Amino acid sequence: MLVAALYDVHGNLPAIEAVLAEPDVRAAELIVVGGDCVAGPQPRETLERLLALGDRARFVRGNADRETVESRDAPSRDDEIGAATHWVAQQLSGGQLDFLAALPLTTVVEVDGLGEVLFCHATPRDDEVIFTRLTPEERMRELLAGVEQRIVVCGHTHVQVDREVAGVRVVNAGSVGLPYEGGPGAYWALLGPDVEHRRTEYDVDAAAADFADKGPDGDGSWFTSTLLEAPTAEHASETFERMARGE
Ligand SMILES: [Mn+2]
């Protein structure tokens, strides 16, 4: 099985459309949607597009998917993120929210040339624990304890990673819809027979213009400000490490 890992789409329909049009994605037998597929400017359309893949798509749950479901009736936190997450939930149908609520934390797929691969959103046991390319090996060993597969594919921090820890190859696929890679594009990974990080170009400026009124109170800046001024991978990784240390 050849697998495309499409993570952290974040409701960015033009980005996922561009990636789904890639020849290698069209040829993939399976698409793993690695969580946080809806939390962005076009949640309903993005989830409809992914669900239209039918059996070719398999989903795992991201923290933002979970938080969206928790915000269906009212904001679950009293800040800008809470307001945006509640807005996202309001854009979705009841059926779409029920679909998100039922997603699994992980899925295992047999990939050509690689064997069993474990797919999760953040880490195998938690949908929001942070690790990066800078995380100390000792901490990585704790996060991976009990994992039986030799390859783990994650997302969540929106930065591509490929590192070997205690005999486990840990890959962050990157983010399709909101990458922190210091430049434009949609970031993802192709698996089988090796693991390849990919970047797909699309018109980010046109997308941001279209997103301008998509958000709480008709304001899309909660999303477009980051989309248009993405931090570099190095800066994002350092910031996440400080967060993980509680600083
Ligand atoms: Mn996430």
Helices and strands in order:
Elements: E1 3-6, H1 13-20, H2 23-27, E2 30-33, H3 43-51, E3 57-59, H4 63-70, H5 80-91, H6 94-101, E4 106-111, E5 115-120, H7 137-144, E6 151-154, E7 161-165, E8 168-172, E9 186-191, E10 195-200, H8 204-211, H9 221-228, H10 233-244
Parallel strand pairs: 1-2, 2-3, 5-6, 6-8
Antiparallel strand pairs: 1-9, 4-5, 7-8, 9-10
Helix pairs in contact: 4-5, 4-6, 8-9
The chain binds manganese (II) ion (MN).
Offer a concise description of the structure.
The chain has 247 residues and is α/β, with parallel strands linked by helices. Helix content is 35%, strand content 20%. It has a single domain, classed as Metallo-dependent phosphatases (Purple Acid Phosphatase, chain A, domain 2).
What can you see in these coordinates?
By secondary structure, the protein is of the alpha/beta class. The protein has a single domain, classed as Metallo-dependent phosphatases (Purple Acid Phosphatase, chain A, domain 2, 4-Layer Sandwich), CATH 3.60.21.10. It is built from ten helices and ten strands. The chain has a five-stranded mixed β-sheet. A hairpin with a 3-residue loop joins strand 9 and strand 10. Helix 4 crosses helix 5. The longest helix has 12 residues. The radius of gyration is 17 Å and the shape is globular. Manganese (II) ion binds next to helix 4.
